[in-house]
Amino acid sequence: MKMKKTFPILVIALLAGCGWKADGLERLESRYGTDATESEPTCPAASDATPEASAAPAMSGTWAVRLVQHSLLLGSMPLHISDLFVGKVAADGTGIDLTFCTEDSVGSDFSSKFGQTTMSDEAVHGLNKSSPVRIPLAAGALPKATRVAWQWGVNLAKPFDDALPTDKTDPRIFDQDGDGRPGLTVTVAEPAGDRYMAKRVVWDLADGAGVGGDWVFGGLAFRIDQQVYGATSSILETVAPIESDPAAPSAWQMHKEADDLDCPKLLAKWKELFGCAPTP
Amino acid sequence: MVRGRLLLFALALHAVAAALATPRDAAAGWADMVQLGGYLSSDIRYTIDDWRGPRGSGTGWYMNRNEADFRLKLSPDPRVTGVVETKLRFYGFNNADDVGDLSDRAKVDPFDVRLEEAWVAVRPAPWMDIKVGRMIQSWGSVDMFNPTDNLNARDFSDPLDYASKVPNQMIELDFYPTNWLTLTAVWVPVFKPSMLPPSAVMGFAVEYDSQGCFAAAPTPPLGRADVDELFGYFGALDRCKLSFLPTEVRTVEPELDIANSQAAARAKFQIGDLDLSLSYYYGRFTFPIAYTAVAELVSDGPGTVQGKTNVKYQAEVMYPRMQVAGLDFSYSAPWFFDVGFVGELAVIFPERVDFALLAKPLGDKVFSSVNVPSTPFVKASAGLDYTFTKWLYVNAMYVRGFFDEFNDRFGLHNYTVLPTELKFFEDELQIRLAGALDCNDLSAVTYPQITWVAAPSLEFIAGVMLFIGDTKPADGFDYGSRSKFGQKAAGRDFVFFKTKFTW
Q: Are residues A74 and B307, on separate chains, in Cβ contact within 8 Å?
């Protein structure tokens, strides 16, 4: 009888240990915390969509343009790059000319500054001046599948195919932002420092589709090549390969805007605007 | 008158006899009450390898230690016993760093004083003992490898003295309900961790090649995919521009809370030639388990190198809670050549430990993985010993789970231990061949020694300690592929010469 009572008590005492847990992740969060993450924009539900949801807008006037490239840094680290432009459709309707505003890059699963870059106004101005981007259109129709190359700090004869120069004295490299450094200077948030580089991105835009009257969008494939010609920190001299993330489809997205849209206005609202943008 | 004189004479005689007798009786009484013991030892060691330490540290004097141990046992009453054992240890190496230190004897000739035991025991009833104070418990039946022996932490600061333990304050109650059963209960209010060998820091050391370029870093206890990703990042960098600051490893100590006390109970049965114990322990594992790590880039500060990418790595280790249900026995088989059999089994119910690594250069990316699952596991040891002749003694043991193994990502390894003693010239000359072989990775440690007993209380011992196995892990991306005794954290190879005088 005594044994019958003792045994369950012993078992309970032993099993009590099974709930113990030392969580290193909680420990790190308590010690280091996490940066406050920005709240996700509230997007209208499907039922809130306008009746003209399937109507394609006419390709004219001014557009807020984002090319969002979901990529993997060093083969595994998610990095989301958004190139933001103000687009003006040419009077003859044969293309949309893009004015570059900024490039935003952020990791996905962490409040990361890793890989984030900023650039000076001179660099933005230099890109708009000597590396303009134009997406061809067919007489005001939605963009059709097309390929665009965008070069930073370099002027290649065959922009789609030529390899980036490895020698910073190569005449094809030029000081695009006028800061006395080869190529274009970008400021990296982490690892912190300036990097003097050339970059070539080749975008393959898929056929466009319209939705909600104000949106046109399509799939996007891309290839990014980079070459570094110097940096303020040795770690930034390493070229970290950026590849397309096969698990996260990239896209180009355009939203019809009033004609007075400019870069400051776009930068003030782009996160909210494109937070609800349609994706392929 | 004559009678009166005789009486006076008798009284005087008695007084003289008493005066003469009393000191002698008192001395005899004190001799019964007091026991003195201890030893003097001198221990010099010299490292003989130049590949197991940090790069650039070759052979050299490793120890030059002198020690005096004093043990006093006092029993002023048959029911009361007090014990004090203290150790005075001089290390023999000059620690003076500047001229100012040269006037400080403690720097020039560093030493420490250790209180190994300080306890008092009282027997309030014939069936009960109460013991309070600083003491060392030894539970289990097997020689050295006792997974049921968890009350005192281990003192591995001296790799040759692997039987040493860290004393701790505790209260012990012993009950003797019958002559074949002893019940013991022990409470230890405050947890103390095990002491590690000086080489333990090598477990966190970064390796550089002969050009000074980064070669390898210790593998964190993460899954393969996470390690691939983490090391893939470093692999993409210029190895020769990487500089790692010395790794900081912090211990996360349990709070001084009663919930972090340790407690244990044991029932020990003596049935003929069989000694059998059932035991239970509630407390913590005394060896550190990897818990967190943070890697970050720093641009300035102590230890940074200009023009290089400086990486700072901070780690934390902790002592997980556990419960242990144990069984151990020893049995001498008169029907089988008097071979002694011993066995010990511990079922351990561990606290789950999730390891997490924050990689700041990767944008505060966090890698996390279960390091110790909550699944109960078994540590065990079993063996037999036999005296073949008066000059040959063999002890063979199987051990599952070394002292510091806790079923983390390193796992539990299996070992064979085969100490053999040969004695010659009436035991005046002894040769001991001892060592342990890790059956999982085939690494080994061996420490053959020869002892000359110059007098009954005086020994001269010479020997060598060798670690055999790969210093590098078989798979640099697998935490569990480190060689148990081959890895540098296990220790250096050295020769030693000891002199010990016991009283």
A: no
Q: Which pair of structure tokens corresponds to residue B216?
A: 């390898």
Q: Is residue B27 part of a domain?
A: no
pLDDT tops 70 at residue A38 = no
CB contact under 8 A, A28 and B236: no
Neighbours of A250 (CB within 10 A): 22
Q: What pLDDT is recorded for position B207?
A: 81
Chain B nearest CA to A194, separation (Å): 14
Tokens, residue A1: 């009888």
What domain range includes position B188?
Answer: 33-502
CA distance to partner chain A, nearest, from residue B264 (Å): 13
Which of B150, B250, B310, B364 has the highest number of chain A CBs within 10 A, making it the mutation to test binding with A?
B364
Q: B366 and A76: CB-CB below 8 Å? A: no
Contacts of B65 (CB under 8 A, 6+ apart): B41, B42, B43, B44, B89, B90, B91, B92
Q: Which of B238, B323, B352 sits opposite A234 (nearest CB)?
A: B238
Q: What is the pLDDT of residue A137?
A: 84
Q: Measure CB to CB from residue B307 to each of A17, A20, A234 and give the nearest one.
A: A234
For residue B122, tell me if it sits in a domain.
yes
Task: Provide the percentage of residues in chain A whose pLDDT is more than 70.
Answer: 80
pLDDT tops 90 at residue A232: no
Backbone torsions φ then ψ of A11, nearest 5 degrees: -65, -45
Residues in chain B closer than 8 A to A16 (CB atoms): 323
Chain mean position to CA B362 = 39
Per residue in A119-153, pLDDT tens?
Answer: 899 999 999 998 889 998 876 677 888 899 999 99
Structure tokens at B6: 């005789």
Token pair 């002694």 in the structure block, residue = B340
Q: Tell me the CATH number at B179.
A: 2.40.160.10
Total structural domains within chain B: 1
Does residue B2 fall inside a structural domain?
no
What pLDDT does A49 receive? Answer: 38
pLDDT tens-digit readout, B207-227: 888 788 888 888 999 988 888
Using a CB–CB cut-off of 8 Å, the residues of A that contact B are: 10, 13-18, 20-25, 27-28, 31-32, 34-35, 74-77, 107, 109-115, 190-192, 233-235, 237-238, 240-241
The answer as to whether B419 is a domain residue is: yes
DSSP code at position B33: H
